[in-house]
Task: structure prediction
Amino acid sequence: MEFRVAEADWRVRETDLMAVRNAVFVDEQGVPPELESDGRDAEATHFLATNEAGNPVGTARLLADGQIGRIAVLPEFRRRGIARRLLGLALDSARTRGDRRVWLHAQHDATDLYLQAGFRVVGERFMEAGILHIGMELDLA
Result:
């Protein structure tokens, strides 16, 4: 199965982006909706993965301060490289706009994805939205 990963306009694709994020973060992981929707989406650069039928299957976003987040892939589409492709597109976007560093709060179970992309751990583990996380960053310069 082929997947398309591309930048997505929040104003046009908000429903698709939020459908994936709600399915993964709110429904699957139990994150409270008010924590998942933090009010920063309008300022972010968004990325959307779609399947061959054009249905949304994954998301990511990049904030102006270099934070990458909201990487989510629907369960039935995991382990196909979609998260890696979303992360790669976010990194390319950060480089293109001149960011020197990106950072994120990685769910502890997902740290391998970021380590393989060159991120390093920064600080101690912490709880965020009831899920164990670790700070990570990547120098782009």
Observations:
- The chain has a mean pLDDT of 96.
